[in-house]
Design goal:
With 351 residues, the protein is α/β, with parallel strands linked by helices. It contains 13 helices and 13 strands.
Length: 351
């Protein structure tokens, strides 16, 4: 379990703290009593969870920094002297990577190098988590789950960039962080996370929210595609639990999966129908004929290592996750204070 006593007073740097996952993580760490610092280019969407939940109110400090600016990343990290670094900043969209491959490789690969160089330059850092992706593997489109030791690869620039991140992090770990007293470096993969406050383009749940909000049909690309869906707080809880463990057991450094139970991997059509019932007939969908870039039809994570070695279990059931998203966006549509709503869900779903 996440231990509030461990996090109270710790200095945590989050890159990408204004993104969807980063905002939920920053709020969680703030409630645990950590001093949270953030590097980001700014909110990636409008509206955004970070703005609506007023994440900046309780940040120890934050800076508008492009993760590709190596000098700025190192300078901010040295100035704040964190003991824990969680690197989330990325270009996270497959479709965008097909239109902007150079940008995707630059942000995801060299941005990660810059963060690892900042960790090297900051002796205070004892733990660094590099957030990768379930897309990092050489996807075989098979029915078996992907384990941590699978070969990395990628059929598109985004997936290839995340495969490269795994190789780069491993190289830094072996070359610069192998000696006692150096930072413990781990990569973490989570798959398709969902939750209130996500407005990213080309993602199923945000597309559903927009369709309901605008009263338009949802256009579905691949209704039979299966993904490892889970509420964002499930893998974030895994990241925090891993960071706690690495602080006392640096030998746990390496790659880790934090995916949902096998029976929570549902096809797109099941999720759309389930949320349509929850929205009481306000959601209608149709097939989008495309053309579309190729996507793997089947993709699931094996998280046995996290369960056995860390005692990690997903806390938020899948049905609860879907209900919480509807509740969050209904509250937003009704003009509620979204910081209070988000903190309330955080307390309920992790309690």
């Amino acid at each position: 379990m996440v231990d509030p006593a461990f996090w109270r007073g710790r200095r945590v740097l989050i890159t990408g703290h204004t993104g969807f996952k980063g905002a939920w993580l920053a709020l969680w760490l703030q409630t645990l009593g950590a001093s949270v610092f953030g590097l980001s280019r700014g909110a990636a969407s409008s509206p955004s969870l970070s703005q609506l939940a007023r994440v900046s109110e309780s940040m120890a400090d934050e800076a508008l920094v492009d993760i590709r600016d190596a000098a700025a990343v190192v300078a901010a990290t040295r100035r704040w002297a964190p003991d824990t670094v969680i690197h989330l900043a990325a270009q996270p969209l497959i479709r965008r990577s097909l239109h902007h491959p150079r940008e995707t490789f630059d942000i995801n690969i060299m941005g990660t190098v810059n963060v690892l160089e900042a960790v090297r330059a900051t002796p205070n850092v004892t733990v660094a988590l590099i957030v990768s992706s379930d897309k990092c593997w050489d996807n075989r489109a098979w029915e078996w789950m992907y384990r941590e030791d699978g070969p990395t690869g990628g059929h598109d620039p985004y997936s290839a960039s995340k495969g490269a991140v795994e190789i780069i992090a491993a190289a830094y770990r072996r070359s610069f962080f192998a000696d006692p007293g150096t930072a413990a470096i781990a990569t973490v993969r989570a798959g398709n996370v969902i939750g209130g406050g996500d407005w990213a383009p080309d993602r199923l749940i945000p597309d559903i929210v927009r369709a309901v909000g605008f009263g338009q049909p949802l256009r579905v690309r691949n209704p039979n595609s299966v993904r490892p869906w889970q509420h964002v707080l499930n893998p974030l809880g895994g990241y925090l639990l891993l960071a706690q463990s690495l602080a006392s057991e640096p030998e746990l450094a390496g790659g880790w999966n934090f995916g949902p139970p096998d029976d929570d991997a549902h096809p797109v059509s099941w999720i759309v129908d389930r949320m349509g019932r929850r929205w009481q007939g306000r959601l209608h969908w149709e097939i989008d004929p495309g053309p579309h870039p190729p996507e793997a039809a089947y993709l699931k994570l094996d998280s046995s290592r996290a369960r056995l070695r860390l005692g990690w279990r997903p806390q938020v059931p899948f049905a609860t996750a879907l209900d919480s998203i509807v509740d969050w966006h209904e509250a937003h549509a009704g003009g509620a204070d979204m910081r209070e709503v988000t903190l309330g869900q955080l307390a309920t779903l992790t309690g």
